[in-house]
Structure prediction request, 94 residues.
Amino acid sequence: MSKEWPLWEIFIRGQHGMSHRHVGSLHAPDAEMAINNARDVYTRRNEGVSIWVVEAKNISASAPSEKGPLFDPSNDKVYRHPTFFDIPEEVGAM
Prediction:
């Protein structure tokens, strides 16, 4: 059994930001301690208004090698290409 604490990924929402941003990682025994440590390490100048901590083992990610098949648009799904919609003149330029 490993004696090392779990790794937590830290996300901070800044005072002027609308979304959380990944700022780093740290080890902690639980989520509460991870939040407290993240506050001390990553918000020294009162720049944060919200902290998210996520245990790294719970994060799933796509592989860079899957970029093409995962993100390329499907040509057989015409609803993803809104070129067939008529835009009313009162809407103007979009």
Summary: Helices lie at 31-42, 67-71.
